[in-house]
Amino acid sequence: MPVEKLNIAVIFGGPSQEHDVSVISAQQLMDAADIRRMNIVPVYMSFEGRFFHGPALRQLERYKPTPPGLREVLFVWDDQGPCLKAPDNRWRCGIDCALPVFHGPFGEDGRLQGMLEIAGIPTTGFSATNSAIAMRKDATKSLVASARVNVLPHVVVHANDLSNAQAVCERIEDRLSYPLVVKPANLGSSIGVGLAKDRATLLANLQGALREDTFALVEPQVQNLEELNIAVMYRDGEIRFSAIERPKSSAELLDFREKYLAREGSSKAGGEGKLGAAVAPSQGMLSLTRDINPDLDPDLQARLYDYAAKAFSILGQRGAPRMDFMHDKRSGELWFNEINPIPGSYGFFLWEAADPQVLFPDLISHLVDEALVDTVKEFDDPVPQAAYLLPR
Fold this sequence. Notes:
Oligomer: single chain
Helix content: 25-40%
Radius of gyration: 22 Å
Number of helices: 10
CATH superfamily of the largest domain: ATP-grasp fold, B domain
Number of domains: 3
């Protein structure tokens, strides 16, 4: 008897600054999914926050930036279970699980997850609450610090604070010393990140970051910096670690396009690239020169694993997030920097270099299996008898 396939709604796009990266990551994931077990149902979120489905979503050359000829759909739970439906009810597709592939606001920050949780759609990765915490860099730092994970001192600036720019700068300078890194508190991929070496550049960078976000995070620049990244998952009763990545760049700060766009050529997991040479997507961050599984001091590696496990545990122990750390090579200090609940292409290249190895199709299957186990909709009356205020 043939095994009935799972219908997996892969959701991507969205009204964020990282729309294009989301589309590219989703194509890589859909190419890699195990078609013996899954039917992939691509779902695109438009800039207006509406959902669309259609075969053009698998044709990357048709994105300009949105493909034509799509059908609008809604996520609902009807008499037959979770599904996608056209608003006029003339089309329906049952789904077993939703797999978001977003980076940044509206897709990675808990808002989409909350909508799916209310509808009762099993969803991969972080819950809505933990996604929201993970997106706010300052909130994440406070939470993981409570689990005895080392973080840098920092100052948070709200956009309204710039009405008194001098007071803001003085508040930052009272706590921190130049040079300072300024970044939006809710974005990733180095968008809006700048380096301030004096008050003038501090103010300019604050203005730049706050054009992208309501909050800016300011922290000291780590000297003798070595970046170390690692992904984690909970599988077979234990926390598992991916390969360790040590990015390298000649620039003081990683540039957004450097991280995600290669200059020539492209290859995609599970299939050939579909982009032309003019704009060729890397696999996650493969356009960077980096070391995978670098030769690290055993004590440093042990601390990295310890911090990653503690941060993962307190943030829900779900999905396959990537965590970024900063290491001062001279002093030996290690700091948690941020967590990415949905890293570019789910960081599959880190898992392929892990021990034991996890190939991209297996990583996708793990995310789906995890969601199907613990995101089942309950239909019973949730109010305990002692809290009844209405007749039953």
